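Today's session is about reading a structure prediction critically. Students often jump straight to the picture, but the first step is always the sequence itself: look for stretches that repeat, for charged clusters, for runs of hydrophobic residues. Only then move on to the predicted structure, which in these notes is written as discrete structure tokens rather than atom positions. Here is the chain we will use throughout the hour.
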Amino acid sequence: MANLIRCKACGYVTCEGKIKDVCPACGVPAKMFEPYADPVTEKRRRILRLHIHPIIVHFPQSFAFTLFVLACLSFVAPPQFNGVLYCTMQVVSSALPFFLILALLTGLVDGKTRFRRVTTPFLKKKIIFGLSFLFTSILIAAGSFALRLSSLLMMALFTMLTIIAVGFSIALGLIGSELMEAKFPG
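Below is the predicted structure for this chain, in token form.
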């Protein structure tokens, strides 16, 4: 394993010799770097370096926000665009639960790899929010197929569900950002 160094200012870690004049993360002079011993085994580090869970969670987050924007557009778009909007909402909302299941599964693997268990307080919160997000996404998917036959009230309910989904997405992102660099040594 290569010798690692860490920026004293921001905590950025990289291999020795990769830094030229300044830290690529925060811009302080290269003299601000110190030797760093990685507390995580190489096997676990390889898994964590893939960042599978942080990448996968962007799909449900962007899908939830897209559905919210499409729902809002449906209130102001000319009637001739409703067919396209409804079809798009059906496709995106149908894919959302599948990506959430994938995000939950990769989250469990990531949690187990980082902390050797998934029962830490933050991970329990993430599981609860993730399952709530999944349940909401199933309601959104079911509701998207009722939109063509529905009233303004159904569209308002659909929009409220997308707001709730975006809220779960934000909550999960905030908890996840606090855990990004945390890992159990060894």
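Discussion point for the tutorial: The mean pLDDT is 89.
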